[in-house]
Design brief:
The strands form three sheets. Strands 2-1-3-11-4-12 form a six-stranded mixed sheet. It has a five-stranded mixed sheet with strand order 6-7-9-5-8, sandwiched between helices. A two-stranded parallel sheet has the order 10-13. Helix 7 packs across helix 8 (205-220). It is 41% helix and 17% strand. It has helices spanning 2-25, 43-47, 49-57, 91-98, 119-127, 143-151, 183-196, 205-220, 230-238, 249-257, 290-296, 298-306, 315-321, 344-355; strands spanning 32-38, 60-66, 82-84, 106-111, 113-118, 131-135, 138-141, 244-248, 265-270, 272-273, 276-282, 310-311, 337-338.
Length: 356
């Protein structure tokens, strides 16, 4: 009887071990590692442990490096499996530089440009007709009046009401990134040149010549230019930096969802803007499906919203996730005119003229 019990116990133990092995075998494991170059505004997304886990569940380990979107075509792209610039405009140049044709690019999510301002600066702009407040922490930057002031080299001291805020000094300008290498800086020129060109996309040398002097003023007044949006944004959040900073809405939306927004931050949506569809360019076969996965997987779409991005065709998702933070955001982009960007050739020429 004792021998029989021992045998039975042994079988049960072996069965338990086998069950544990089978259960462990159901744990998701990454089947392939891919490396990519991305815009810096997506670095936090790919570092998020929940994103890492969601990608692992789908068989991917993703390693990334950051670069200005418009500088990616100058990198040794053969060493990467994918490139992920912050808009669609650099994608063709990336394909050409990588030696690929007809890549199945995808646009998993997008983010409009915004200007973040200190509350005192936003009030002075609004009181002088350069902005319109829509809430305590949100408003609209009126591009026509703002560009007129920029063209006249207006200073803060020349704006009535600024004397109550002695920290506002010097020429009124928006701190951008380098338009020759960074997507946000380039799209800022796309939007401002459109307004300066009688609300038409700059499409030829004549229009470049007509708008270039103003573009030069917008860029030259800034001094040293940052290569990506991350550094000026972090400076602003830390309490330093300029009173007006160009950023992506995604950076702001992520911050407010984390309840980390500075109390005196105001988000101004330019009334004329160029949206920024982050475009996934597969370079190697290993990453061919990753862009589609980022665009369609429900878990990854939810995580993209958590990081402030708007999934393609995902306005309801974005609106629902940010409903508690309407004081800062404009989920429906109400009152915002969205315009197309010039060709890469034209935008490159504008950036060169703007930088002198």
């Amino acid at each position: 009887m004792r021998r029989i019990l021992a045998i039975v116990l042994g079988v049960l133990l072996l069965g338990g071990v086998a069950a544990v092995i089978l259960l462990e075998g159901t744990e998701p494991t990454a089947t392939k590692t891919v490396e990519g170059v991305i815009g810096s505004e997506k670095a936090e997304f790919f570092r998020d442990p929940d994103v890492v886990k969601a990608l692992k569940n789908k068989g991917y380990t993703v390693k990334t490096e950051t670069s200005g979107s418009w500088a990616m075509d100058r990198l040794p792209l053969k060493k990467y499996d994918f490139a992920f610039p912050s808009s669609s405009e650099p994608a063709p140049e990336i394909e050409t530089a990588a030696g690929i044709k007809g890549a199945q690019t995808t646009r998993p999510f997008f983010s409009p440009l915004v200007v973040i301002a200190r509350a005192n600066a936003a009030k002075v702009l609004a009181d002088n007709g350069l902005a319109r407040m829509t809430g305590r922490n949100s408003g609209t930057l009126l591009m026509g009046p703002y560009l007129k002031a920029a063209g006249e080299d207006r200073t803060w001291q020349q704006l009535p009401g600024s004397t109550a805020h002695p920290e506002l000094t010097g020429t009124v300008f928006i701190k951008t990134t380098d338009p020759a290498t960074s997507n946000s800086g380039a799209l800022f020129l796309a939007a401002t040149s459109n307004v300066a060109n009688d609300n038409k996309v700059v499409a030829d040398d004549t229009a470049i010549g007509r708008t270039a002097p103003l573009m030069r003023k917008l860029i030259s007044v800034q001094g040293a230019l940052e290569p990506s949006t991350d550094d000026p944004f972090r400076s602003f959040i830390s309490g330093s930096g300029e009173p007006l900073i160009l950023a992506y809405e995604a950076q702001v939306a992520a911050l407010v969802q984390q309840k980390q927004a500075p109390a005196d931050m105001v988000v101004l949506y330019p009334d004329t803007t160029v949206n920024s569809p982050h475009t996934f360019v597969p370079i190697s076969e290993a990453a061919r499906e990753l862009g589609t996965l980022l665009a369609t997987d429900p878990a990854l779409r939810k995580l993209a919203v958590r990081h402030g991005f708007r999934p393609q065709d995902g306005v309801p998702e974005f609106t629902a996730a940010t409903a508690a933070h309407g004081a800062y955001l404009n989920p429906e982009l109400t009152g915002i005119r969205q315009v197309g960007a010039p060709t890469v050739k034209i935008l490159t020429a504008l950036a060169e003229r703007a930088k002198g």
